[in-house]
């Protein structure tokens, strides 16, 4: 029996035997009639001790088997039978370790999935501009091209390279935010300053379409945010409104302070969304009807990732009188 072969059990049996002989010898010297009583008592206590030792050994063996199964991927293991006795402390620690291992395994699986998705996204999005660059390079080898035609091909190459650079940079930002490798620098700031920072790079694009950007943000309204990342998120939403609004249109940005949250509402007077597009607006690379040429479908996805990482949410819907509406909520006390 494996139990008997255990070195600790062997020592216990040897020590019990020595003590039995010792006390039997003492009892013979003192009173020979008491030998059988002493012998029976010692044997009984030794048997009881060995029985409980065997039970404990069996539980430890079962525990070892369960841990081995857990390490080989069996997540259905339960340690409920080890609730009582001296193994309860060990059970608690192993239960904690089990939960931690499962959580780490799940996190690793999600991280691998995100990495695979990011690589697939990059590969898919770079395929088209790379193909175009190859065609342009082949065209540049034509010695019969005029200087004007050659300049136009080089200009197209520069545009494609710029698009590829933007795609890679944006995808890396989303991947880093998903993986948690970017630490947001949270600080209490005036929301009006963040909105103005978001609008500044888009003023020329709005002017070219003769659009007006209206702001209704209370000057005293403060939020705890990462200024740079939040400005980028708001900028992506505003940029989307500019692209989908007609010439001479308007974009309105409002902030409303409520007891539990602060709402930022961004509206335009464009055509709005088709109902089938609304659930997918914040998906990566999604391009609904009316998407502008060259739009990779990453701006709103990045905006959602940034806002979610700060405990906020973003939603989109159509206004009753026409036009798109984005609602961003920053909840108090979550950061």
UniProtKB/TrEMBL annotation:
Gene Ontology biological process terms in this record: cellular response to phosphate starvation
Pfam families the UniProt entry points to: HATPase_c, HisKA
Keyword Kinase: yes
Principal localisation: membrane
EC category name: transferase
GO molecular function: phosphoprotein phosphatase activity; phosphorelay sensor kinase activity
Histidine kinase domain location: 121-334
Annotated TM spans: 12-30, 36-54
EC code(s) of this entry: 2.7.13.3
InterPro entries reported for this sequence: BphY/WalK/GraS-like, HATPase_C_sf, HATPase_dom, His_kinase_dom, HisK_dim/P_dom, HisK_dim/P_sf, Sig_transdc_His_kin-like_C
Matches recorded under PROSITE patterns: HIS_KIN
Domain of life: Bacteria
Reactions the enzyme catalyzes: ATP + protein L-histidine = ADP + protein N-phospho-L-histidine
Location of the protein in the cell: Membrane
GO CC entries: plasma membrane
Keywords: Kinase, Membrane, Phosphoprotein, Transferase, Transmembrane, Transmembrane helix, Two-component regulatory system
Protein name as catalogued: histidine kinase
Natural source organism: Faecalibacterium prausnitzii
Source species taxonomy: Bacteria, Bacillati, Bacillota, Clostridia, Eubacteriales
């Amino acid at each position: 029996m494996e139990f008997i072969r255990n070195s600790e059990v062997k020592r216990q049996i040897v020590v019990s035997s020595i003590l039995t002989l010792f006390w039997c010898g003492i009892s013979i010297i003192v009173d020979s009639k008491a030998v059988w009583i002493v012998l029976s008592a010692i044997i009984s206590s030794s048997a009881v001790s060995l029985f409980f030792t065997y039970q404990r050994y069996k539980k430890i063996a079962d525990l070892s088997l369960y841990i081995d199964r857990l390490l080989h991927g069996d997540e259905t293991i339960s340690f409920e039978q080890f609730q009582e006795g001296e193994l309860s402390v060990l059970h608690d620690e192993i239960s904690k370790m089990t939960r931690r291992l499962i959580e780490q395994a799940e996190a690793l699986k999600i991280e691998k999935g995100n990495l695979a998705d990011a690589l697939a996204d990059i590969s898919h999005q770079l395929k088209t501009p790379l193909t175009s660059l190859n065609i342009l390079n082949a065209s540049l080898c034509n010695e019969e091209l005029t200087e004007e035609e050659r300049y136009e091909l080089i200009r197209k190459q520069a545009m494609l390279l710029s698009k590829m650079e933007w795609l890679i940079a944006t995808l890396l930002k989303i991947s880093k935010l998903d993986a948690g490798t970017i630490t947001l620098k949270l600080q209490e700031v005036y929301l009006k300053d963040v909105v103005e920072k978001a609008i500044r790079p888009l003023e020329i694009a709005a002017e070219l379409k003769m659009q007006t950007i209206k702001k209704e943000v209370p000057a005293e309204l403060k939020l705890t945010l990462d200024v740079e990342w939040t400005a980028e998120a708001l900028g992506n939403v505003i940029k989307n409104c500019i692209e989908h609004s007609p010439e001479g249109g308007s974009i309105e940005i409002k902030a409303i302070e409520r007891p539990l949250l602060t709402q930022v509402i961004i509206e335009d007077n464009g055509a709005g969304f088709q109902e089938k597009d609304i659930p997918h607006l914040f998906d990566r690379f999604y391009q609904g009807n009316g998407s502008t040429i060259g739009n990779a479908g990453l701006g709103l996805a990045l905006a959602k990732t940034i806002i979610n990482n700060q405990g906020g949410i973003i939603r989109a819907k159509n206004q009753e009188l026409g036009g798109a509406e984005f609602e961003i909520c920053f909840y108090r006390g979550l950061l």
